[in-house]
Amino acid sequence: MPSELTLYNTLTRKKEVFQPLVEGHVGLYVCGPTVYNPVHLGNCRTFVSFDVIYRYLMAKGYKVRYVRNITDVGHLTDDGEDRMSRGARLEQLEPMEVAQKFSNQFHDMMRTFNALPPSIEPRATGHIIEQIEMVREILANGYAYEVNGSVYFDVEAYNNGNDERYGELSGRRIDELMAESRELKAQGEKRNPSDFAIWMNASDDHILRWDSPWGSGFPGWHLECSAMSTKYLGERFDIHGGGNDLKFPHHENEIAQNVGACQHAGARYWLHTNMLLMNGKKMSKSDGNTISPEELFTGDSIHVSEGYDPMVIRFFMLQSHYRSTLDLSDEALQAAKKGYQRLLEAWNSLQEMQASGSAQNGTVGKELTAGLEAAYAEMDDDFNTPKALARVFELVSRINALQGGQLSLDEITARQLTEFRDGLGKLLFDILGLQNRASANGADREALDKVMQIVLDLRQQARADKDWALSDKLRDALQDAGVTVKDGKDGATWSV
RNA sequence: GGUUGGGUGGCCGAGUGGCUAGGCAAAGGUCUGCAAAACCUUGUACGGCGGUUCGAAUCCGCUCCCAACCUCCA
């Protein structure tokens, strides 16, 4: 593919041409979920966005190592209790049982959304040794200090006179940050409010704990990603991604830790996905403004009028750009559902299409080829899925016109048709990761096909006899059963 | 208060100086036994006020409003 991939780098706040560190290879790290709660829809949007990015990089011919962690330790509640432990206490389970349960659930959900699994999915608890080692290095380099068995990152030492160094990603300056509002007992141990823990001393009742050179404790909240990205992608790697809400402090601290340990930053390109909103506000675990994926699938929620297929939701997400907020509403989902159906129906009729064999100049074929190239070019522009889909829908009209006879199949050569079909299929299913559900049911589908053919033949006979009462009755009854009949030029087609 | 990003036609959502985004909805037409589908046509949309420019949704200034982050969160 001749065109260049550009992407928006949060670090520089502009679009840059993507140049991998090692030609032909991409190291991609994405901050994964915490697993003390069921996954919620906002996470799904982020991971669907990065799924498309991962898929597109592969389609560009890159060999991609995609690392996405599972956070199963280190996040504290307001009263200092580890969230894993809290979940375990509330459900009377082992902490690792909680982690496993929600990891499994998360994986199921990713499959439901047709998101590919990452190449490596490391767990924070599986990398305590690496994290301890990193703390050691940061200490050795003079960017941290130990107090009472805890180790804090020393932001002042890190800045070393350059007060814009810490905060370069998020545009923050430490003297502008709000004062720490939480009353953690550890606050008093810090030299500066903006210092953050990279190793914490465990109190006696803390369940998740490991031995370290500084006593029994657990790793800081942001250290795992620094340690694991370094381990699996190297001290320098290409792309680091995550949700916008992780920009500060999580990613800012990651950069500081990487520099603290390795004397230089890790990722070269930072990509941030924007929030999924509902009612104009962020969907949030904490304030109840949320709808779970399951509720969205079943329709069991005051926010939706019916259940939506996961692919409709995926399509809905792809109709906005990953860096924009997306406002979820029933009306918008209805629009997505209908649009997605129209897209699939056009795809399905394209599969039935035969080149006429008497094609001359292939005018329409050239149009289709150009439109498809335009769609791919949009993906090169910072993974612009909404624009790519806009180009695809222009092609949908062409396909339907060929199907409906408004355009002639004489204007497309067999070769053009084949290449177009392959290229469009690759874009829709391999890159955008959509699924053609209607044709995915195997034997059941085959049986239904045959039954429907019988019914449609009967109806066609009734129509030939001008028995409108019978033909309409068949059509209405099928509609009630959820099958839509469409009369075309060459007989009727149907869809569920 | 600070930081970052927004306010686009009935709804969702692209778009960063001039050329139709796209989807859904709506109106008219073609087709059809009727309908649906499909195709064709139709929208003087860019928060407000100034400014720069031959020309601004797009650049600049002011202003109003919204969201996220600054506390676990994709």
From TrEMBL:
Binds 1 zinc ion per subunit. It is found in: Cytoplasm. One of its GO terms (molecular function) is zinc ion binding. Gene3D superfamilies: Cysteine-tRNA ligase, C-terminal anti-codon recognition domain, HUPs. It catalyses: tRNA(Cys) + L-cysteine + ATP = L-cysteinyl-tRNA(Cys) + AMP + diphosphate. Belongs to the class-I aminoacyl-tRNA synthetase family. This is Cysteine--tRNA ligase. It comes from Neolewinella xylanilytica. The gene is cysS.
